[in-house]
Amino acid sequence: xxxxxxxxxxxxxxxxxxxxxxxxxxxxxxxxxxxxxxxxxxxxxxxxxxxxxxxxxxxxxxxxxxxxxxxxxxxxxxxxxxxxxxxxxxxxxxxxxxxxxxxxxxxxxxxxxxxxxxxxxxxxxxxxxxxxxxxxxxxxxxxxxxxxxxxxxxxxxxxxxxxxxxxxxxxxxxxxxxxxxxxxxxxxxxxxxxxxxxxxxxxxxxxxxxxxxxxxxxxxxxxxxxxxxxxxxxxxxxxxxxxxxxxxxxxxxxxxxxxxxxxxxxxxxxxxxxxxxxxxxxxxxxxxxxxxxxxxxxxxxxxxxxxxxxxxxxxxxxxxxxxxxxxxxxxxxxxxxxxxxxxxxxxxxxxxxxxxxxxxxxxxxxxxxxxxxxxxxxxxxxxxxxxxxxxxxxxxxxxxxxxxxxxxxxxxxxxxxxxxxxxxxxxxxxxxxxxxxxxxx
Length: 441
What we know:
The strands form two sheets. Strands 1, 2, 3, 8 and 9 form a five-stranded parallel sheet that branches. The chain is of the alpha/beta class. The protein has helices spanning about 1-15, 25-45, 50-70, 75-80, 85-90, 110-130, 140-150, 155-165, 185-205, 225-230, 280-285, 305-315, 330-340, 365-390, 395-410, 420-440, and strands spanning about 95-100, 135-140, 170, 210-215, 235-240, 250, 260-265, 290-295, 325, 345-350. Helix 1 (about 1-15) runs antiparallel to helix 2. About 45% of the residues are buried. It contains 16 helices and ten strands. The termini are far apart.
């Protein structure tokens, strides 16, 4: 208990305070404390003899801190020498790091700002890719790729290049990161249908590779989501909100259809912080793996990975008593999960609710969503019957455009109702445009 209290006090000094303007002693102390914390986690899961080494390392750190008020480079090196017998075990764990940017569609801003943050974020990512040849990035939502295609075709060509290099992973299975309670089954089918058609053509990729549904911020999920995902060819699901389920599990619908699911154990809007390594041994042990996933990228308004994130990750990978850090993709991680798929726990039922009040707000958006969904379904049925019986042509592209406007407004901050006035006004205009396209058929 005494050793634990000492380590916690060191943590408060080095991990819960700013980095003192880049103070060198602080950086070495931060490195020493993080490695001690990680070694302590290993000791909880492995041979008891490890604890003696960890206790000795804590004693060394505590004594130096008490005498000098800081941990120096020499202190860190001494602690690493003490923990050296653990290096092989420490490095047997791997953390696959995937950069991402959380881009909300019209949450606390208007659509013009959504366009701006999308383009600004992607310019930054492409610049980072030029500077760091191993850096990888993943981005969901077909709507953001449409923004790039419409407003910066030259950037689109750069993105396509990185996609085909395998460094820019497309995790868009849906038009937006949508709510999973209120859209109709037909709407969800259109999300998958139009996203695959659009991105396959736009980026020149195999549509079957779009088999990850990335929904970190969705507020709730109905019981048949695994059924819909399976029917759409989605094999893997990533979420953060909605339930306190296991880290990895198989989410099963009432029919028995299921998808492999990863619940973010920390937070999806987080920089590259060494503290994320602390959960690796326990998470891996829970499913019999040696590989974990770290999603990193700061900001809730675009942003994404930073140079500091990347440099810090590369530096931590050199630490001897720490897991292996490497850039990778969600597919890299899920392919590792496939090896233990039969051992994953099975979860059934809804993943609900968070931010319940959102579902009772912005009633106009909810009303127009349902009316426009119904109008589209009726219009498509009518023109299909007329075409089948009389050969009269109709404009399928107009109906597709109307559907995309509806799908955009099913974003998890628009349809549930957590947006602001600008959000609602843009959504209501989109519904009018969609209805105009329907009524001209």
